[in-house]
Amino acid sequence: MNFIGEHSLWALAGRFFTYLAFTGALGTAIFYGLNWLRPGACSGPDELGRPRPAHEPFLRAGRGAFALHSIGVVGILTVLLTAILSHWFEFDYVWRHSSRDLPLEYVFSALWEGQEGSFIIWIFWHAVLGWFLVRGAKTWEHGTMTVVGLVQLVLTSMILGVYVFGIKIGSSPFVLIRELPENLGLPWTTIKDYMIRIPAFRDGQGLNPLLQNYWMVIHPPTLFLGFAATLLPFAYAVAGWIERRPLEWVTPALPWAYFGVGVLGTGILMGGAWAYEALSFGGFWAWDPVENASLVPWITLVAAAHLMFIVKKKKTSGGLTAIMVMLSFLLVLYSTFLTRSGVLGDSSVHSFVDLGLNGQLMLLLGLFSVGSLILLLVRWRSLPRSSADEAFSSREFWLVIGSLVLLISAVQISFSTSIPVLNKLIGPDGLVPILGEAMAPPTDVFRHYHSIQIPVAIVVSLFMAMVPFLRWDSTPNALLKRILPSLIASLLLGGLAAWGLKFDQPMYSVLLITGVFAALSNLDLWLRYQGGGWRSGGQALAHLGFAFILLGALISNGKKEAISQNPVFLHKDFPANEHILIPLGDTVSMHPYWVEWTGERVEGHFQLFDVNFYGTAEDQSPGKKLFSLAPYIQMNPRMGNVREPSTKHYWDRDVYTYVSFADMRSPEEKASGWAEEMDATMGRGEEVFVFEEYMMRCDSIIVKSAQMIEETGDLATLDMAAKLTLKHMDGRNETIEVPYGVRGNEASSGEAEFVNLGVKVRFDGVSDEPGRFKMKFWRKAPEEQEFILLQAFIFPYINVLWLGVVLMAVGTALAVAKRIAGPKPAPKP
Amino acid sequence: MAFLVGALMVTIQDASTYATFEMASKKTPESVTVVGQLDLEEPITFNTSTSMLRFTAVDKDGARSIVYYNQPKPTDFERSEEITLTGLSSGDTAFFAQNILMKCPSKYADEAQFSSK
After folding, report:
1. Do A437 and B70 touch (CB under 8 A)?
2. Among A254-268, A275-289, A372-386, A622-636, where is mean pLDDT lowest?
3. What's phi and psi for B28, nearest 5 deg?
4. C-beta separation of A623 from A592 below 8 A
5. Which end of chain B lies in a sparser environment, N or C, as judged by fewer CB atoms within 10 Å?
6. A182, B48: Cβ pair inside 8 Å?
7. A546 min Cα distance to partner chain B (Å)
8. DSSP codes of every residue in A80-128
């Protein structure tokens, strides 16, 4: 049947491209794999170091299959993007994630809001990165591309959306609402013009208002590019270990590892920037499970990338390096499992919907984990025996220790984030009930994570400060003295800053000093010993950037000050409230400012609240006006209102504020507030006392009109009115008529209002007692003083954090560029 | 390695447990996590001078408790299917929540509008 207005051909095209991508990935894996694993090809270059000749037809077939796969992926993206741009709401994905009024730039956010979309962007980046391997991996092409093909096969299976023996494999973004399992067989699905008849198809559900933020346009693709970048080192490692070249793979994989470190790190903190700007939880990092899930692979990737230098230079630590590289990729898979399976429902503010793919997600995670583990176990013996222990003053020794410290950090975050998973596995209702009661996540997440992560950060910043000065094998004492100037300077400078900032926790002061040490020593290294040029500056700049990130996070969070304090004392264990009440037009003290709320206005979907900030004069009264902010509430009838902050940026601090409570009723609603409902039964001549201050008297009942039914003499219609007088104790009185009527057996009730006295009456039916009737009364609610609750924080030196992100991104980019540009030995201290 | 084990031990000890209101009152002043539902029959009031939210929650055992939460009312609070309260009990009179996490009806529920036609 042809459905009017439906773009089923496009849906079909989308499906076709999905199958093409899937088949292409399968072909890639098979043809590259056959070429790679055919007898004699497995051990990489021959005895003379020459690449073994490839089997040309297989090679060409593998590349062809990957080209088809890529065309499929681009096709999927094109069809989905077209559907969203054209508002084809018969597509379930389009209906769920977009709407007609969605601004153009957020079409991309809608594209990757759903799980299917985020899989697609991830697959897309893998396909793009795959071409770098085809073009540049040379002897590694067969091995790495076989791995890429396998990974892509599994990932595209997540968007297949087919049923095999009743089991759902993947969820396709090209399903029409008509085709959803729950709608199959419903009568409307057979109506030719159902799209016109059913109003729900005229507009989509819309994008979650929280995601309508420019950071959400670039954060997800950057994050997923970072995720995708972990595939390349993984592919090299797997290829290397299978080919019994457990060390050589490191050289080509190294730039990709740093590429991943830079992109993933930037992507994670872009998410932080979004949280800081669009969410009102007051900060850029909340140790939310979803944030943690993306941070952990980054930490292990950083460890892996640093270890790769040891393998490259010293031909040792091959095992640990491979473990870390594989762990990074597996943790990316695990992170997608965590965030997509719905298992975090109780512990994350991000709501995820279970698409019924948990089994498949677990299978792919298990497959790659077990595969990697077996590979490591089987080939462990092909690692060259290390001849001697590393010297205490050698760079490699401390790099290994540093990566183990990073592993501790990763393990703690993973463990605490995985508590819901552990409950599913070994909790009282889990698969293997070991625990007597279910574990709950720590109640104070900040204290919990900081108890381990702050000491780790201290050690890591110390290492960042000193290890770059160390040499491979061993470091002469003369060279060690080069660290002294920055050590002394940071003790002075950091100590002074720590003393000035007065942290309430000694650990924070220590981290401040070590952080400054890391920054100064890397700057010193770059300017004095590496010539200060861009080409050589990658490492030092990236370290400097990371030191800034640590310092910025430390100071802005450690000295974050809630200036909106409610003065009411509650309980010694229950912290005083951090929300300040501001009546409309009033100016209240919010040390060091005075704030005034002048009014609200509506702009599109936003209700803005204009708040003026004044300084404090010498006599503690409001001083001159400093700035205005307009925190707002995003109104979304479908998904609820969202409170969004407004921030005044100074170079050395941010004043961050959001409206935590506001009366969102419309002015009419606010004005028409009737309150204190009351019932009474009365008859003619009777009086009742209402609201403890009025006397209500029924003066008379007036018949306005009456019609009889001729034949029977029964009443057909009767319109009457009760004349009521309301008398206040102070003598004011008012008389009105409340109409009511009878139509056949139905009584209709009328309403009237004592305008001057502010009381409303409604006839509420005839009483069982003859001649009496029931009445309801309301009186006008007293005019409420309008107010808002505001929460405001000062984040000192948060710009240090953002500067750090930029420096780290630039630094890693320079380092990667240097690696790609070729081997020109950099001057080492 | 010792560090790793140590860090893990600290981490495990830090994990709290899911409790009922009764268990919470025995564990005071330790913070616990209570999963339950909002009691819509009882009033939800917000005191503007202390900016304190007061409501009644029902835990998994069906026990009711008054809950104080010194934050403004979360958006769509009444629509929540399930609420996760983190905080401590003050003996048997009330529960002081420091944090509330709501599970809202999935937006997929809106799709039911197609199924009914």
Report:
1. no
2. A275-289
3. -50, 135
4. no
5. N
6. no
7. 23
8. HHHHHHTT-TTBHHHHHH--TT--GGGHHHHHTTSHHHHHHHHHHHHHH
| Contact (CB, 8 A) for A709 and A744 | no
Q: How far off is chain B from A481, nearest CA to CA, in Å?
A: 30
Helix axis angle, B2-14 to A395-417, nearest 10°: 20
Residue A576 binned pLDDT confidence (cut-offs 50, 70, 90): low
Identify which of B70, B106, B115 has the shortest CB distance to residue A570.
Answer: B70
Residues contacting A88, CB < 8 A, separation 6+: A7, A10, A94
**Do the Cβ atoms of A441 and B33 come within 8 Å?**
yes
Q: What is the pLDDT of residues A783-792, one digit of tens each?
A: 667 888 888 9
Average pLDDT value over all residues in chain A: 86
What's the ipTM? 0.80
Which residues of chain A does B51 touch, with a Cβ-Cβ cutoff of 8 Å? 566, 577, 579, 581, 661, 789
Burial of A441 (0-12, 13-18, 19+ CB in 10 A): buried
Judged by CB atoms closer than 8 Å, whether chains meet at B11 and A570 is answered as no
Q: Which residues of B touch A660 (CB under 8 A)?
A: 71-72
Choose the weakest-confidence range: A136-150, A617-631, B58-72. B58-72
Q: Which domains does chain B have, with CATH numbers?
A: 34-105 (2.40.50.140)
pTM metric for this prediction: 0.85
B115 contacts A186? CB cut-off 8 A: yes
Check if the beta carbon of residue A303 is closer than 8 Å to that of residue A317.
no
Surface-to-core class of residue B39, CB atoms within 10 Å of its CB (0-12 exposed, 13-18 middle, 19+ buried): middle
C-alpha dihedral, A673 to A677 to A683 to A687, nearest 10°: -90
Q: Which residue in A104, A103, A69, A90 sits closest to A5, CA to CA?
A: A90
C-alpha distances out from residue A407 to A226, A302, A303, B98, Å: 19, 10, 8, 32
Q: Best-predicted range by mean pLDDT among A310-324, A671-685, A695-709?
A: A310-324
Please report how the helices A215-229 and A115-136 are oriented relative to each other, as an axis angle in degrees rounded to 10: 50
Q: How many CB pairs below 8 A link A and B?
A: 143
Angle between helices A798-821 and A538-558 (to 10 degrees): 160
- φ, ψ of residue A435 to 5 degrees: the values are -80, 140
- The Cα angle at residue A549 between residues A547 and A553, in degrees rounded to 5: 120
Q: Taking a C-beta distance cutoff of 8 angstroms, is the pair A109, A84 a contact?
A: no
**Mean per-residue pLDDT, A539-550:** 96
- The answer to whether A408 contacts B4, with C-beta atoms less than 8 Å apart, is yes
Report how far residue A364's alpha carbon sits from residue A379's, in angstroms, rounded to the nearest whole number: 22
- A639 Cβ contact list (under 8 Å, min separation 6): A206, A208, A209, B107
Instruction: Measure the N-to-C terminal CA separation of chain A; round to a whole number of Å.
Output: 76
Q: Which two tokens stand for residue A397?
A: 């020794």
Beta B16-19 vs B32-38: how paired, if at all? parallel
For residues B32-46, give the mean pLDDT: 83
Please list, residue by residue across A238-256, b when 16 or more beta carbons sit within 10 angstroms of its beta carbon and e when fewer do.
Answer: bbbbbbebbbbbbebbbbb
Hey, are the CB atoms on A452 and B7 less than 8 Å from each other? yes
Q: Which of chain A's residues have a Cβ under 8 Å away from the Cβ of B73? A: 661
Rounded Cα distance between A168 and A403, Å, is 41
In angstroms, the first-to-last Cα distance of chain B is 62
- Highest mean pLDDT of the ranges A162-171, A290-299, A731-740, B60-69: A290-299
Contacts with A177 from chain B: Cβ below 8 Å:
111, 114
The confidence band for A169, taking pLDDT boundaries of 50, 70 and 90, is confident
Chain B residues lying within 8 Å of A349, measured CB to CB: 101
